[in-house]
């Protein structure tokens, strides 16, 4: 009797999604065995910046734990540290532009990622260091680096995958986990449209000194997701962990610092409005000009108050140049501050 050939799955993209799928397939090989290969366009794990803080819900953490083996699960606290009792609360507050609380939904408390995954009702979330999560998920995965997929060809036997370096690989199932600009998605669904929502985001990872974080906590409390809504269509978002980080830069005060992701969102049409005081042209290749643009918009669209001053002060912490050695940046990750359009797929286009 001829032995059944083990089917091959190729995953293109070694981000959080691709790596989670890889682990899930390997973990469940007792149900179905696959020969799984994973390819990544980056040249190494440290080749490119890996994203801002993210919030994983109780349902998301449960799904993640179901995907990964125990060896990976035991290391997840490296990416999503245990909650510090009486210091930080995993939740969200939404305030108006002067700091009045509009929304503060109740959430269930938990001590770690394993406990939040057991919460079956309601919505809770844990702030996660995205770059560290990717590092944890990379453990034990034989990623083939510097392999950018450019196209595929389907045959009766399976799929041929072609890479930019001229090589090609055969598989039975091809999975595109390579982001919104995926060439696999563009080839498979060429009619699928990407739409702009008319909203521009500017995001930055910053290192916040304690005296500023104390001001933030005074307005929002010790919750880890803080959102403010303006009356002109703009909003701010701050995600943080109240866990001091090591400062590699000189700090004469030896003051504790905390990681935070800042996001400023505003109607994209405001980029086309001439502002009399705007004497500096906004250049997305020049982080300083983008940061100054954000500060001007906040000053222009928000009232003169303590919260407005605080938001401007926080944005002033964002790196205004591209570090020569990003690895030495306090957060260990760095992406130049740029304007980005909020985009998504239009499911009605197919």
Cross-sheet strand order for the largest sheet: 5-4-12-13-14-11-15
Q: Could you spell the SSE succession in H and E letters?
A: EHEEHHEEHEHEEEEHEHEEEHHE
Low-confidence stretches: none
What is the makeup of the main sheet?
7 strands, mixed
The average pLDDT is 90
Number of structurally distinct domains: 2
Strand content: 25-35%
C-alpha-based Rg, rounded: 22 Å
Jot down its keywords:
globular; 350 residues; 2 domains; 27% strand; seven-stranded mixed beta sheet; three-stranded parallel beta sheet; alpha+beta; FAD/NAD(P)-binding domain; single chain
Describe this structure in words.
The protein has 350 residues and is of the alpha+beta class. It folds into two domains: 1-53 and 130-190, FAD/NAD(P)-binding domain (3-Layer(bba) Sandwich), CATH 3.50.50.60; 196-343, no CATH class. Helices cover 23% and strands 27% of the residues. The chain contains nine helices and 15 strands. The chain has helices spanning 16-27, 58-67, 70-73, 113-116, 130-138, 183-188, 210-220, 287-301, 306-315; strands spanning 8-12, 35-39, 54-57, 89-95, 101-103, 125-128, 149-154, 159-163, 168-171, 173-176, 193-209, 223-229, 235-240, 257-267, 339-346. The strands form four sheets. Strands 5-4-12-13-14-11-15 form a seven-stranded mixed β-sheet. Strands 2-1-10 form a three-stranded parallel β-sheet. Strands 7-8-9 form a three-stranded antiparallel β-sheet. It is globular and about 75 Å long.
């Amino acid at each position: 009797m001829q032995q059944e050939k083990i089917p091959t799955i190729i995953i293109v993209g070694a981000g959080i999604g691709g790596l989670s799928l890889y682990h899930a397939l390997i973990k469940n090989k007792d149900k179905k065995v696959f020969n799984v290969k994973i390819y990544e366009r980056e040249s190494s794990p440290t080749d490119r910046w890996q994203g801002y803080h993210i919030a994983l819900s109780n349902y998301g953490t449960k799904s993640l734990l179901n995907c990964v083996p125990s060896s990976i699960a035991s290391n997840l606290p490296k990416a999503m540290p245990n909650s510090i009792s009486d210091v930080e609360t995993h939740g969200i507050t939404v305030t108006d532009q002067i700091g009045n609380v509009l929304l503060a939904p109740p959430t269930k408390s938990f001590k770690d990622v394993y406990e939040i995954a057991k919460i079956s009702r309601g919505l809770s979330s844990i702030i996660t260091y995205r770059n560290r999560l990717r590092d944890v998920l990379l453990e034990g995965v034989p990623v083939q680096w510097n392999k950018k997929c450019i196209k595929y060809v389907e045959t009766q036997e399976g799929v041929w995958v072609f890479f930019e370096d001229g090589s090609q690989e055969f598989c039975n199932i091809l999975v595109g986990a390579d982001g919104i600009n995926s060439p696999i998605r563009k080839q498979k669904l060429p009619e699928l449209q990407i739409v702009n929502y008319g909203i521009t985001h500017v995001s930055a990872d910053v290192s916040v000194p304690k005296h500023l974080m104390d001001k933030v906590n005074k307005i929002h409390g010790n919750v880890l997701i803080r959102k403010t809504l303006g009356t002109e269509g703009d909003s701010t978002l701050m995600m943080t962990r109240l866990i001091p980080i090591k400062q590699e830069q000189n700090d004469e005060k030896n003051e504790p610092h905390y990681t935070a992701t800042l996001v400023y969102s505003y109607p994209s049409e405001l980029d086309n409005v001439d502002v009399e005081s705007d004497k500096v042209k906004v250049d997305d290749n020049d982080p300083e000009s983008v940061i100054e643009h954000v500060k001007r918009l906040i000053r222009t669209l928000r009232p003169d108050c303590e919260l407005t001053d605080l938001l401007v002060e926080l944005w002033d912490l964002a790196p205004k140049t591209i570090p020569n050695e990003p690895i030495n940046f306090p957060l260990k990750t760095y992406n130049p501050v740029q304007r980005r359009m909020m985009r998504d797929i239009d499911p009605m286009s197919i």
